[in-house]
Amino acid sequence: MWRPLSRVFASVETERNLKAAAVLRGLCSAASASACSGFSMEPKLYRPSPKVRGMTSLDKEAFTQTITVPALRVPNGVLHSVVKSLKKAAIQRPGVPRVVQDKEESCDFRLVLLDPHRISSPSSFSEAESEALRSFGVIQELQQYELRLTYHNLKSEEVLEAVLPQGQDVPSGFSRVGHIAHMNLREHQLPYKNLIGQVIMDKNPGVTCVVNKTNMIDSTYRNFKMEMLAGEENMVAKVKENGVTYEFDFSCVYWNPRLSTEHQRVVQLVERGDTVFDVFAGVGPFAVPAARSGANVLANDLNPESHRWLQHNCKLNKVEKKVRTFNLDGRAFIQGPVKQELPALLKGKNNVHIVMNLPALALEFLDAFRGLLQQEPSCDENLPIVHCYGFSKEDNPETDVVERASGRLGFPLKDRCSVHFVRNVAPNKDMMCVSFTLPKEVLFSGDHEQTELLSEEPAPKRQKCEEANEST
Ligand SMILES: C[S@@+](CC[C@H](N)C(=O)[O-])C[C@H]1O[C@@H](n2cnc3c(N)ncnc32)[C@H](O)[C@@H]1O
């Protein structure tokens, strides 16, 4: 049964509970009289004091406050079962215990703290919860408990909502790369950047470094310019993706944790004995797992730092004998190592995959395959399968990437390819993967010299990427 507040106040004598009663009266005085007939709570009870608004340097003490929460006195003998039955009604706060000592009363009882947003009176318990309480012989009478909440009991969004100007967005999230959290702060959040960094670090175990990526992505190597917000400046990250460990300096190579499913999808197409040419390999998220699956891999990246970490990751994962690495422009890689290896591979039985993950530009590299080989083999060819990535802002991104790929190849791919939606990278911008068997009409076309004439756009030579910060 719910005991009216006046009776609760009259029946408790301890200083602690009297204080609790005062807090509750304070809460009630701000509310309407009718609201006080139950356990009235402000809707946002955990909101820190307004004095923290506008804080730019984190003062954790300023977030300390005492609030009153409902509690249920429960005999020790049934405590475990009651807590289990009240899972949804019990308080759930980082660092706040659900069960506390009922110091002033018999030590045969404990207090189970309840979520004040969920339980305002005994009638707030669900039918099942009430039934469970009855069966355990627990009196459904709410007590008030004074709870000291500190900075450590608040969630990061609660801290940031209280600090940043009212009505403006708080940072909604971050990407995690090993111990590094990287954020994309908006203009109005910049005055609070160091506080934001500190809060993200405090609230996310394992994060010891928080960086903000400034707007531009480096045009050639697809790595971000970054600014330290909080923590130690150690950019060498260690991450695990699909069971494979990678290490790299995040400040000078490309790494995107959102591509793990795509890496896995493509690697699953590769079988033992296959050959994989990875034209834009980065630090190895296609190359290393493909080699671990038993493929022979030739992996290339133009960025000397990516190339260095690619080699490192091959050693780290003990596949250095299965992977040959190159530090070339993608076009030179296709017209060099790929061209050299292909004739023998075409005669073989194992599949050959060519992976081209540089979505801003890769489609434009496809003309490098035109007339790549001179002599058409007499027997049935084992033609390579190309997986080429592209961004699209068109209403029909599938058609768009197929048309662009066809234009670059000088050969219609429609009905001869499959298109996979990888992810949405920005509003109205999708990352797609078009996969197709490289047509022999392209590979042996003999029009290598005409490449520039046939394609609608000029062949890219380390072009600037048109878009910033969207390839994450
Ligand atoms: C989008 S990242 C993809 C890396 C990796 N394949 C992955 O999935 O995470 C593209 C990579 O291409 C490299 N790159 C950029 N331009 C290049 C070029 N012209 N030739 C070869 N590699 C290039 C960049 O250094 C970067 O590592």
Automatic annotation (TrEMBL):
One of its GO terms (molecular function) is tRNA (guanine(37)-N1)-methyltransferase activity. It is found in: Mitochondrion matrix; Nucleus; Cytoplasm. Keywords: Cytoplasm, Methyltransferase, Mitochondrion, Nucleus, S-adenosyl-L-methionine, Transferase, tRNA processing. PROSITE patterns: SAM_MT_TRM5_TYW2. Residues 449-472 are annotated as: Disordered. GO terms for cellular component: mitochondrial matrix; nucleus. Residues 458-472 have a biased composition (Basic and acidic residues). S-adenosyl-L-methionine binds at residues 263, 301-302, 329-330, 357. Its EC number is 2.1.1.228. GO terms for biological process: mitochondrial tRNA methylation; tRNA N1-guanine methylation. Residues 174-440 form the SAM-dependent methyltransferase TRM5/TYW2-type domain. It catalyses: guanosine(37) in tRNA + S-adenosyl-L-methionine = N(1)-methylguanosine(37) in tRNA + S-adenosyl-L-homocysteine + H(+). Monomer. PANTHER family: TRNA (GUANINE(37)-N1)-METHYLTRANSFERASE, TRNA METHYLTRANSFERASE. Belongs to the class I-like SAM-binding methyltransferase superfamily. TRM5/TYW2 family. Belongs to the TRM5 / TYW2 family. Specifically methylates the N1 position of guanosine-37 in various cytoplasmic and mitochondrial tRNAs. Methylation is not dependent on the nature of the nucleoside 5' of the target nucleoside. This is the first step in the biosynthesis of wybutosine (yW), a modified base adjacent to the anticodon of tRNAs and required for accurate decoding. This is tRNA (guanine(37)-N1)-methyltransferase. The lineage of its organism: Eukaryota, Metazoa, Chordata, Craniata, Vertebrata. The gene is trmt5.
